[in-house]
Amino acid sequence: MTVTARPARLGRDYRLLWSATVASRFGDTLRTPALALLAVALTRDPRTVALVTVAGQLPPLLLGLLGGVYADRWEHRRTMAVVGALRAAVVAGLAVAVALGRAGPALLVLVAVLLATLGALFDAASFALLPALVPTGALPTANGRLQAGTAVAGGFLGAPLAGVLFAASAALPFTVDAVTFAVAALLVLALRPPVDRSAPPSTRTPAGPGTPTDPSAPAGGARRRGALWREAGEGLRWLRGEPVLWRVTLLSAGSNLAISALMAVLVLYALDLLRVPPGGYGLLAAGTILGGLAGALGAGRLAARLGPVTALRWVLLGQAVALTGLALARSPLPGGLALAVFAAGTTVWNSLFAAYGQARVPAGLLGRVGAAQRMVGLVSAPVGAAAAGLAGAAYGVASVIAATAVVTGLVSVVAWRVLRPARPSDGPTTAGTAARPGPPRSR
């Protein structure tokens, strides 16, 4: 008789972190469309409106590695709480300026830059904190539930409510956003100090500010004296020296190229080729969110059944099939089903990608390696969106959807060729060995 192990309980501290993350995401999905609506209300110059959007996208790419450095230098709970309080203050200030009629395009750009920069630090600290709150085997489930919570808060609650609140008062969505950041900060402060799970149970102690939990990491004073970019490079070098995680990161970049291209023209494809009526586009979006939610909730079970690396290969294959179905679809129902399957694969990939890294990266490098993963994985997104716009104008949006299917199929073929589960002897690389990786290992 086969005995199935009961899933590990995620615990009180995980629930607090989950609540803080979901609250922040809810506020983000109120603020982002409200910023766009406010920009349009202030100016009809498309260059200015686009600048507000770009201002919120560039900081994670340009400064994300530095966010990882500070996430590793500082105690994670306090970092997240301070960042939450600062973001609440920034958005509250914007709400006051809007209410007084003093908000101009320059202020919107400044706010977008500040919030995106602080968000990169918050994300790096959150990524590094999670492995200290839940057992390693529960990381796929924990990340999946985070994905599910943010999908519901963003897709079903925040995004539909943003326009309603803005119509009632231009300052209202920013006021609510400030409250969500303050709530998130208070929830994080309620967390107990995490312990180093890599240490023997009899020697585990709470991780304090400036104290690395990884024995191989430099001491706090040495880290403070080190150059920021050198420390940032340590995370990137570690990632480059861990073959499986580096390959998964590059595959994410390839996949994000297709995802960004898809999102750039999706509304045109839905209205013109799937013949979705304008009033029904929200239903198509809701179906996509439901697919993503189902994938997030099933990520832990899929990882337990197949193993995370094998599951990632199957996810890419499923997404390639889904995009092929979308490229062939010419009516709302099959197109909506294809999008739902694709969205499910995206949330499973995100959950397992994060969990795999969190389980293998030394605790003292988690912030920097997580930031490096996100930077490398997302660097292709602006390229995909720009290419989709140019190709759509020249050859039509149907060609863009077909191209995304081809790109995802190629990424899937590469994944099946290069991704192999790590051998039991392949433990996490230390910071010291990452700078000089040995000969490539055959997997």
UniProtKB/TrEMBL annotation:
- Report the Pfam families cross-referenced here: MFS_1
Offer an example of a GO molecular function term for this protein: chloride transmembrane transporter activity
Q: Which SUPFAM superfamilies match?
A: MFS general substrate transporter
Among InterPro entries, the record links this protein to:
ClC, MFS, MFS_trans_sf
Q: So which residues are the signal peptide here?
A: none
Annotated Gene Ontology cellular components are:
plasma membrane
Per the UniProt record, which residue ranges are transmembrane?
48-69, 81-100, 106-134, 146-168, 244-271, 283-304, 311-329, 335-356, 376-395, 401-419
Calcium is among the record's keywords: no
Q: What are the protein's UniProt keywords? A: Cell membrane, Membrane, Transmembrane, Transmembrane helix
Topology relative to the membrane, per the entry? Multi-pass membrane protein
Location in or out of the cell: Cell membrane
- Residue ranges for the region (Disordered) are 197-224, 424-443
Q: Which PANTHER family match?
A: INTEGRAL MEMBRANE EFFLUX PROTEIN-RELATED, MAJOR FACILITATOR SUPERFAMILY ASSOCIATED DOMAIN-CONTAINING PROTEIN
Q: What is this protein called?
A: Major Facilitator Superfamily protein
